[in-house]
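## Example pair
The file below holds two records. Each record gives the amino-acid sequence first, followed by its structure token line.
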Amino acid sequence: MAHVNLLPWREEQRQKDKKQYLGSLIFIALIVFLAFWLLGEFIEKQIRNQEFRNNYLNQEISILDAQIARIRDIKTTKSAISQRMALIEQLQVSRNVSPIMFDELARIVPNGVSFEKMSRNGNRIELVGISESNNRLSSFMRNLQASEVFTNGELSSIKADAASLNAVSNFKLTFSLSAKVAPVTIDEQNEGTN
């Protein structure tokens, strides 16, 4: 009987296995905790890096927005200056139009035709006047058509004045200045394109 072991070796083995199991479990739990902590730190670092990039991009975008606003202001100013320059050029070109127009009217109007009212809108002229006879008015219309200063003569109305002792006629006439004398204005160009 010398070989019979009476000590509770199975209980000791269970205790030993239990301690080893708990040690392994704690070790694995620590490794898992450490892995999750490292993963969390990595994700946190990525988030911080992305926030830094976003802030940098937002700063650059605000700088570009300011530059775009400045460019818009410059374009607006440039457009206004271009319009002023075009107006000045137009005024330079058309400054001699009135003297040329009145000189030509004085040359082509026959005796017996007089004007009561004259209005000009751009290159379009409207005359309201009196003619002693239809022949004189016809002569004026022929002279108007032959003129290099005027174009598109159109007699809108002609009425005999019954109240007058003389046989006079009231007339309304519209015509245009030729492009040689008065170039097309900016407003007329815009109306033509619309």
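Second record, same layout:
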Amino acid sequence: MRWCLPLLFCCASAVAAAPDKQDQDALQNLRNHLARSFELAPELPLDDDLRARAGQLSAAHLERINALLPLWMEEERTLQSTGGKQAERWSVFFALWARLLNELALWQLEPGDAAYEQATLAALKGSPLQCKLHGDSHFTDYAARIARIQQLPAAQRPAMLATERELLAHWGQPRPAPAAWPEPLPQEAALALLSSRQQDRPPLPPTLAVQLLSEGKDYAAMAREDQCLLHLWWFKRNLQQGVAPAVALSAFRYGTMISAEMRFAGMFESGTTNGKPAPAPADGKLPYPPIASRFHAVGATVVQLKLNANGKPQQASVVGRTVTVPGIRGARPVAFETLFDAATLKYAMDGRLPTDPTFKVQLVWKLEDTQP
């Protein structure tokens, strides 16, 4: 299903179906897509009672959101229809898709009440098996939360599920803005510590030691399960270093949050060869990230360089992000805010920025041409 959604619309102009039928098909595909984020794989080791209760909770949530989707679609169509010009079906669909993904991301970042946060901290200190979620790693959003609850004593689970119900009820509602992005990102901070070879750090799980210390594997190339293990390791290290639990927990949530570039990895690429991105445009301009192009995301990133002893770029960090995505209003588009990070960092490390480390440079991202 992850790959067929774009196909539904790629040939829309050639399909003679009635508009309402196309809307129904689009909504059903979005419902199917959302349902996958709430699947609990049969192999996931959960007690029968917890699995049953979690299934009832997710079913009720999906029923509510499924009923809201047609209303969201009409709302988006109305907002996009200006000057008597009807909104394009493509733009309405992708705006709705963006909104749905962003609700997932906001939900993953939102803290619960004090008891919920304390229990979550305790669960994350438990077995690393909570990163092994079995299902498609693009759709383990709900499974990760239920796997954490499984780590807790049975007496605590009903209260945790009650808070999960409250947090799910916030979908589609105004909510407090999430905490700011960690700076640097937790994976960047963890990898910087590992590259420094400092000894005062907790031991890495064997699979991470092989990948990161022996093979020098890039974070983006790691499996989601291994990325989760790295964030779990960094979370525990933060606590050992006296970082405030709320700050450590927020960093973990950002690190493991579903993002557009994770969820849609490879879906909208064009002109690729053996899985590698197409070459940069001949005019020297930065290539626009395909996912950003598809969702008509625009914005700006602020980057800062760290130089080595020879005055060459050693490390670049994105220290500011402003992103706008059609369909997401009244909330930060957190699922899309890192869309331009990879291109920004490459641009900086290619030596195309001023070499004064005190400089912070803003790159503005905008679509010069409307793209489907």
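Notes on the second record: The two ends are 20 Å apart (CA to CA). Residues 1-19, 271-278 have pLDDT under 50 and may be disordered.
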